[in-house]
Amino acid sequence: MRTFDEFFLPEGWERMDRSDLPEMFRDMETEGELVTGVRSLQDLIRKATGQGEEGAALEDAGLAEVHPFPFLALVGMERVQQALILAVINPRVGGVLLLGPTGVGKTTAVRSLAGVLPQVPRSLCYYGCLPEDIEEGGLEAVCPTCAEKHQRGEPLAVMEPARLLELPYPIQPEEVWGTLDERAARKGRHRLRRGLLGLADRQVLFVDEITRYPAAVQEAVIEAGSQGHYTLSRGGLTAMYRSQFLLVATLNPQRGRLPFPMLDRFGMRVVVQPVTAAEERALLWERVQAWRRSPRAFVQAYEESTQALRRDIQEARDRLARVRVPEATLQATARLMARLGLPSLRADLALLEAARAYAAAEGRETVTPEDVRAVAPFVLPLRHPEEVEAYFTTGQVPEAPWAQKVEKILYNGGVP
Ligand SMILES: [Zn+2]
């Protein structure tokens, strides 16, 4: 086990001294954004999540709404809603990719998630130390200041609702990864500050139209999200930052595509089709009009049911740590995956983690083959290169030959 210093304070990195801080901040807990000069990015993020000052975000109308469309007011998006909720309950599913043409409501659906996110710990420390670091790695796994605080019985983090951070477009590389801290440099100190990948730790990172970003940015968010950490090297300094965020991305197949290995890294994928039923279209139109006319009143009308959903999600998330996959379910899942012959093992992991989230949402602590069957449609499509090729060519997901057989393979020992 590497100690905190080996992990986070490699050669050349200088530990921050409280006396560096302006007078007014000295009594505050060391807040990353205050001492690292990312105040403006933080503000940007607040706007993106609708948590900024009223009206302030209107200038950035392309970024996000002050009153996001209520999650429960979405029409004809049940599969998207289910996938997003499962991923929020268990971010270990490995990200959600929503595929579909422009105008089907993918972006609105993701932004509406901001209203139902559960509580997550926010570190009070510059280095992002969390209580769970001590649970996992002992006092050595946090910075010396936090180790002392822990021994004095003081909190290392506060709980607050997770935030939905939207990756700005366009974005500069230093905003993504981080860079040398100019504020510190002006005082003759040599230090790094983390970028959005690090700031998104424990939050939801939304990448709208992922294919419009440079390939390096696409790779960085997918890689950092699945690894849970990333390394930044600038000007002879190197630092590792935690980046355990839930990645939610949208992709319009008419505008671009992701290479298969990157697509495969998304644990869940939903192909979103336009709402076609006449009544649903009418209902959706009415709701969008009502929301545009009076966003505050419209959001208010859904407030009670939104709060109830948020509580359910929080409960499921709290239950998740106790949810186990028994041997029989594991065997049935392994049988299924062997039959499908997928090129990577990522789908196996995503399937089991999604099934755990499903069981937790259902109020259970044991995962059954039925849970695996329930989440299979979110995990298994677009896992074969030929299937992906067909989707990008025709816009339709071909029905996989296994689709009808999942149940039988899961329950009958692999004899469909
Ligand atoms: Zn610390």
CATH fold call of the largest domain:
Rossmann fold
**CATH architecture level-2 label of the largest domain:** 3-Layer(aba) Sandwich
In DSSP terms (H or I, runs of 4 or more residues), the helix count works out at 20
CATH class descriptor name of the largest domain = Alpha Beta
Helix content, binned percent: 40-55%
- Structural class per helix/strand content? alpha/beta
The best one-word shape is globular
Strand order of the largest sheet: 4-7-10-1-11
What is the element layout, followed by pairings?
Blueprint: H1 4-8, H2 32-36, H3 39-48, H4 78-89, E1 96-99, H5 106-112, E2 119-123, H6 131-137, H7 144-151, E3 157-161, E4 164-166, H8 173-177, E5 178-180, H9 182-186, E6 192-194, H10 196-199, E7 204-207, H11 215-227, E8 229-234, E9 237-242, E10 246-251, H12 260-264, E11 268-271, H13 278-293, H14 295-301, H15 303-320, H16 327-340, H17 346-361, H18 369-379, H19 385-394, H20 406-411
Parallel strand pairs: 1-10, 1-11, 4-7, 7-10
Antiparallel strand pairs: 2-3, 5-6, 8-9
Helix pairs in contact: 13-14, 15-17, 16-17, 17-18
Bound molecules: zinc ion.
